[in-house]
Amino acid sequence: MVAQRSLISGLVFAGTALLCFAVPGESVAQDQMSYDATWESLQKYRAPEWFKDAKFGIFIHWGVYAVPAYGSEWYPRHMYRQKRREFEYHKATWGDQSKFGYKDFVPMFKAEKWDPQKWAELFRKSGARFVVPVAEHHDGFAMYDSSHTKWNSVQMGPRRDIVGELGEAVRRQGMRLGASTHYAHNWRYYPHSSEFDTNDPAYYALYNKPRSPDAPASREFLEHWYARVKDIVDKYEPSVLWFDFGFNRPEFEPYRKKICAYYYNKDAEWGKGVVLQYKNKAFPDGSAVLDLERGKMDRIRFMVWQTDTSISRKSWGYIENDEFKSTDSLVDDLIDIVSKNGVLLLNVGPKADGTLPDEARDIFLGIGKWLSLNGQAIYGTRPWHMYGEGPTQGGSGHMAERKGQAAAYSGSDIRFTTKPTVLYAICLDWPGKEVLISSLSSSTFLCRGGIADIRMLGDGQALKWSRDATGLKVELPEARPCDYAYVLKIRLNGQLLGRLD
């Protein structure tokens, strides 16, 4: 059996945990703080409790790229790259790139069947606590009422404020609204050539101006990027502000600090408790929340972190003939992430008409069904000093999922989450008639009063159990209470020791 990873072992993880170890006990009222655009000031930030409690959010990649629905959400770039399959597909299907460019998909993006209230109701049923639509992707088309570009969903395409309408619906359902911006990469996104419409000055506001591919972003573009992000913050007051790569380039550094300070200081007015999320090394530890794209941690991280991944495998935006993950695997991912002090942001790509794929709807409802029964072991929990035990070790780090390192868990794979007087032991598959949890042997001191009783969520009956030097043995119910992971609620006669709060 693979040795369980404890919180103590996390002290050496990337040099970050030692930094965090010193600060969990600090009490800082976010709405009483003001921030300067310096890393020293921004590292005073503390992630709000609502986010630590939420555990699960919905990401939405929806834009003009849903019209061709081919390849991926990167179609706008790849359709202009001659060695890509999207290039030939585009010429064969839509015409030469000099005559039919990406701009020509915009009038076809009508969202004629979009009902934001139905989306919000489904997301609430999934068990999500916050929703993060892509406000603007690399393509430069704003899905909101932008004051800085005419290429937006109010003036063109759907002629609706997508972020604004969805935000109202989401908040009515008791969830929080976030927004993501990927616009920083627009500087390098579109290939320019005299053979393409991207070289036409009439469309520079969408495609940007021709330049050397390696040229750093100009001051003009940086100021424009900052104004667009500030516009999103001011108009929609997002509780989550998510950034993609691109703005991690050196020329963006003063603007990263500037927008972060602006966002945090706006929260002093709002009192929401906001979360700025970044990838890679765009921010120093402690100044914002780290996000891993299609990847996870292999141990507990002291500071709360996030995985963003998609419900489908091939694309973040809608494409035809995509492959969808199983509900079982996504529930397991959620549990694994939460046990390591993480949050799952799960993406869906809607169709151009505003409807969601049937497969995605079924998965959301399946996750919601599991959470309606077992949610107490997820929401509002905190990690124990070890995340769990078992033979299966999935890959860790950025893009581990894409590298083929996704895990298929067994009944011997256990994950722990906690409440003050409860330890939840979650079996990621059905163990059989009995489960042995070696981490909870008689030599493991849980609390002064010991175990009061053990029950499986969804069953409710007190289970027979015993502890010895080999571990905690629990006789399981004859019938499985749900379809996926199975939660043992270990109620204690006192405060659980070793809990990260």
Give an overview in words.
- It is a single chain.
- With 501 residues, the chain is an alpha/beta fold.
- It has 2 domains: 25-293, TIM Barrel (Alpha-Beta Barrel), CATH 3.20.20.80; 383-492, Golgi alpha-mannosidase II (Immunoglobulin-like), CATH 2.60.40.
- The chain has helices at 17-21, 39-42, 49-54, 75-78, 85-93, 116-126, 162-172, 186-189, 204-207, 219-236, 253-270, 327-339, 358-374; strands at residues 56-60, 130-136, 176-181, 240-243, 275-278, 289-293, 305-310, 342-348, 388-389, 414-419, 422-427, 434-437, 451-456, 465-468, 471-475, 486-492.
- The strands form 3 sheets. An 8-stranded parallel barrel has the order 1-2-3-4-5-6-7-8.
- α12 (327-339) packs across α13.
- The radius of gyration is 24 Å and the shape is globular.
- The two termini are 28 Å apart.
Q: Poorly predicted ranges (pLDDT <50, ≥5 residues)?
A: 1-5, 8-28
Count up the domains: 2
**Class of the largest domain in CATH?**
Alpha Beta
Structural class determined from secondary elements: alpha/beta
CATH superfamily of the largest domain: Glycosidases
Number of strands: 16
What is the H/E string? HHHEHHHEHEHHHEHEEEHEHEEEEEEEE
CATH architecture assignment name of the largest domain: Alpha-Beta Barrel
Strand order of the largest sheet: 1-2-3-4-5-6-7-8
Largest sheet: 8 strands, parallel, barrel
Percent helix, as a range, is: 10-25%
Strand content: 15-25%
Give the mean pLDDT: 93
Please report the distance between the alpha carbons of the first and last residues.
28 Å
The radius of gyration computed from the alpha-carbon positions, rounded to a whole number of angstroms, is 24 Å
What overall geometry do the principal axes of the alpha carbons give?
Answer: globular
